[in-house]
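Duplicate of #3305? Posting structure anyway:
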């Protein structure tokens, strides 16, 4: 049985990945500061440590005590707006702390890592769907902070033999199929939970930022990936590294997009609730369409989205929000 250390395993995507690892009979150790994560999201079958990835003594002790084989690294700040206001925070929390974390792992003999990256590394794409070979020119400090980590991995591999796979997510959404864990951010910035909070009456309305984009209905189109499918991608990436797959970055999406209006209309149908909508001006830096090219991950890792149709995404998220109206 392999032992996997999951940093940020109390977060949204991290907790779903922990659940998937346990279902696959991995031994899982979670390290999370709980600054944005939730202790209640972590499976009782995982070993939990409250702490920071930059605490080299703690990380070293965890690796030794539990004989950690590999790491899935989620721990990070991930709010684009906050990163614009506090770029120094993002370069410290994401980039600097990750460097210290990975250095500690390498010193302890752990050289396999799956990294939670982001489509924000691409910036405004020149072609859609976006292939992994596209230029990486982020337009916000969040994207830059993640790209710098990916770039550091290349050099750490040359110097120390680090084996790594970076998964560049598009829009993670949905909740566990059994409704036990889901998406609970404060503040919440993602479209689907905001729409569902409006359906629950916790918000008065949902704002649509921009209605004049060059898309069929004038609103932005995004590639939504079910969090359960995303969790599976991490396990396949781990297994690929174990088999000697070359390091590199992979998109995780569906290759298909849904517009803001499509999401809201589908949510109305699934919830059976009225969802008031207010049209608002565009937000600076929002591309019209962000959709992933996913041939690489399908071919090389054997991954396929199974739950990422919009109905399943919204239905599972709605089940979670109804059962946890105040979150964890």
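Output from current build:
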């Amino acid at each position: 049985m392999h032992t996997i250390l999951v940093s940020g395993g109390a977060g949204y995507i991290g907790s779903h990945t922990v659940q998937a690892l346990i279902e696959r009979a991995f031994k899982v150790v979670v390290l999370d500061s709980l600054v944005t994560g939730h202790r209640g999201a972590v499976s009782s079958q995982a070993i939990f440590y409250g702490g920071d990835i930059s605490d080299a003594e703690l990380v070293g002790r965890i690796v030794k005590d539990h004989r950690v084989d590999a790491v899935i690294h989620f721990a990070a700040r991930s709010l684009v707006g906050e990163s614009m206001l506090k770029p120094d925070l993002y370069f410290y929390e994401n980039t600097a702390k990750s460097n210290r974390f990975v250095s500690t792992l390498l010193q302890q003999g752990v050289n396999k890592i799956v990294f939670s990256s982001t489509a924000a590394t691409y910036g405004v794409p020149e072609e859609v769907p976006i292939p992994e070979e596209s230029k990486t020119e982020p337009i916000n400090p969040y994207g830059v902070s993640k790209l710098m980590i990916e770039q550091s991995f290349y050099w750490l591999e040359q110097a120390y033999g680090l084996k790594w796979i970076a998964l560049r997510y598009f829009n993670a959404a949905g909740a566990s199929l059994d409704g036990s864990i889901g998406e609970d951010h404060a503040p919440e910035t993602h479209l689907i939970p905001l729409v569902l909070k409006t359906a629950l009456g916790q918000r008065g309305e949902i704002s649509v930022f921009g209605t004049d984009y060059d898309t069929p209905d004038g609103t932005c189109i995004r590639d939504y990936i079910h969090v359960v499918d995303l969790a599976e991608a991490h396990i396949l990436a781990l297994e690929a590294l174990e088999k000697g797959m070359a390091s590199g970055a992979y998109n995780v999406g569906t290759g298909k997009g849904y517009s803001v209006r499509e999401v809201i209309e589908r949510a109305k149908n699934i919830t059976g609730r009225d969802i008031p909508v207010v049209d608002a001006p565009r937000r600076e830096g929002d591309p019209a369409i962000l959709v992933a090219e996913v041939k690489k991950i399908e071919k090389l890792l054997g991954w396929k989205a199974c739950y990422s149709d919009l109905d399943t995404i919204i239905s599972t998220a709605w089940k979670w929000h109804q059962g946890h109206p105040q979150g964890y």
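Confirmed duplicate; merging threads. The two ends are 31 Å apart (CA to CA). The chain has a mean pLDDT of 97.
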